[in-house]
Amino acid sequence: MQLFALNYAVPVEEFEVSAPYTYDSALQLNLLANGRIAAHDAALMRELGATTSTAGSKTHFDD
């Protein structure tokens, strides 16, 4: 038996995305190339809406 939803599922196009920040596991923050905290960059926040990382999933089991 095949699930109903699988009849209509369409593969998602994968896009190559590069974020202008990297995750620092010691600080548990996303940092820009110049060392500033990514969340403090208002222009970046307007453009991307948010910064995301895996910090929550590494530190909290209920995420």
From TrEMBL:
Pfam families: Strep_pep (PF14404). InterPro entries: GRASP_targ (IPR026496), Rbsml_synth_pep_Strp (IPR025744). This is ATP-grasp-modified RiPP.
